[in-house]
Amino acid sequence: MDATQVSGKRSGAEAAREFDDFVEACSTRLLRTAYLLTHDRERAEDLLQTALVKAWRSWSRIDGDPAAYVSKILVNTYATWWRRRRNDADRAATHDLWTALGRLPRRQRAVIVLRYAEDLSEAETARLLGCSVGTVKSQRVKALAKLRLDDASVQETHGEAAR
Q1: In which band, very low, low, confident or very high, does the pLDDT at 153 lie, cut at 50, 70 and 90?
Q2: Chain mean position to CA 55
Q3: How far apart are CA 49 and CA 56, in angstroms?
Q4: Which end of the chain has fewer CB atoms at under 10 Å, N or C?
Q5: Residue 64 has what pLDDT?
Q6: Taking the CA of residue 161 as centre, how many other CA atoms within 13 Å lie in the half-sphere pointing to its CB?
């Protein structure tokens, strides 16, 4: 059975084998997504581990592509963590893409990560985030505008320092 597809009822041993195959096939991509959301290797690993534990608990109910299901768990868990640890995002700023992404509101960051890093369509992104395609589009436009402004301020700051 393909590690990206889960279907029907199965024995405990078979379900465990399918889950192990899924983790082996998809964990690198899911860890990358977690890292892009958290900007921190250890927190990304914790986030992925938490998501996989939640996925295992409901593994028997997943029908179809479990990668989308686990991606949604990642985003939702990250959002919960973010609300609890919002002050963690106020780290010392270095003007690069990671810092700029870190300054985006959580939904805008999730849209950018899912659309560009995960290469999901607008419809897939909307489904994972539980919103409309129009919301994904507007959040993407707003996020890109903020990233452009952030880049412009970085260029201006570096230009002043060079004088």
Answers
A1: low
A2: 15
A3: 10
A4: C
A5: 80
A6: 6
Whose tokens are 């768990």? That residue is 73
Residue type, 28: T
pTM of the full structure: 0.56
CB-based contacts of 39: which residues, under 8 Å, 6+ apart? 98, 101, 102
CA–CA distance, 127 with 121 (Å, rounded to integer):
10
| β-bridge mates for residue 6, sequence order | 64
Contact 19, 59 (CB under 8 A): yes
The whole-angstrom separation of Cα 87 and Cα 141 is 25
Amino acid at site 69: Y
Tokens of 57: 């608990």
Q: How far apart are CA 59 and CA 31, in angstroms?
A: 19
Contact call for residues 111 and 129 (beta carbons, < 8 A): yes
